[in-house]
Amino acid sequence: ALEVLHWSCDDVCRFVAQLGLEKYTPEFTVNKVNGGKLLDLDGAKLKAIGIQNHTDRSLLKKRIKDLKGRLEKERKAIEKESRLKAKMMQRTGRR
């Protein structure tokens, strides 16, 4: 999930196409939407870049929300692993 933060505009267009919404790739291209920008899109912003169809906006919002959820889950797992490693280092250092 973390790779979405590094997606290029082409990666975002592939993601949109995988959702069956390839007709909107020009809107994402013109607006230079990369992974970071994609995660910031809400309904109003999607409409502003040209996604006029409510059903299509809803699908995109849901998938963006899914991406954000996976990203957050992965971030928390990395933080937890980092804390565990720090604890292990402290215990090892005490002996």
UniProtKB/TrEMBL annotation:
The UniProt keyword set, sorted, is: Coiled coil, Phosphoprotein
Q: Name one GO molecular function term.
A: actin filament binding
Pfam families found in the cross-reference section: SAM_2
Q: What name has this protein been given in UniProt?
A: SAM domain-containing protein
**Stretches of the chain forming a coiled coil according to its record:** 57-91
Ranges of residues in domain SAM = 7-70
Q: Name one GO biological process term.
A: neuron projection development
Q: Does the keyword Electron transport apply?
A: no
**One Gene Ontology CC term in the entry:** cytoplasm
